Amino acid sequence: MIALSLPDKPTHLRHDDLLSIVAELYGLRLRDLRGRSRLAIIARGRRVVCFIAHEDMGLSHRAVGQLLGGMHYSSSVHHVTRARELLETDSRFRLEVEYVRGCLRGTGSNQGD
Fold first, then answer.
1. Rounded mean pLDDT of 13-22?
2. CATH number corresponding to 11-105
3. What is the spatial distance between Cα 102 and Cα 70, in angstroms, rounded to a whole number?
4. Number of C-alpha atoms within 13 angstroms, CB side, residue 71?
5. Can you give the residue ranges of every domain in the chain?
6. pTM for the whole thing?
7. Listed residue (76, 12, 2, 91) closest to 46, CA to CA
8. Which tens digits make up the pLDDT trace of 32-58?
9. Average pLDDT, whole number, for the chain?
10. What does the H/E/C string look like for the chain?
C-alpha cells in the first residue's frame, strides 16, 4: 500500500505565508512585492519569493507571476536565475532564503531573537 502525505496547510495559505514572511523580513508591504517598483530592496524580496515559490513549492513561472500581481513569467525566470547565482556568491542572501524556508517549515520564526 502506498502512503500518501498531505501538506500541513492548504497550498494557497503557504503562498500567502511566503509573501507575508518575505514582506516582514525586508520591511515591505504586500503591495510592494506585487507592484512594479524596481527599488533594490523590493526586487530582492521578489527574488526570494520567486525562488522559493518555484524551487520549493513547485509553482510554474506563470503561477509565480500571478502570485506577484501579474508579473510576466520571464521576470520570474530572471529572478530565479539571479537567485541561484546569489546563493553561490552572497552569504547574506543565502541566510535570508534559509530564514524564510525555516519560517515556512515552522522552525525559523525565532532565529536571531
1. 92
2. 1.10.1750.10
3. 27
4. 27
5. 11-105
6. 0.83
7. 76
8. 999 999 999 999 999 999 999 999 999
9. 88
10. CCCCCCCCCCHHHHHHHHHHHHHHHHCCCHHHHHCCCCCHHHHHHHHHHHHHHHHCCCCCHHHHHHHCCCCCHHHHHHHHHHHHHHHHHCHHHHHHHHHHHHHHHCCCCCCCC
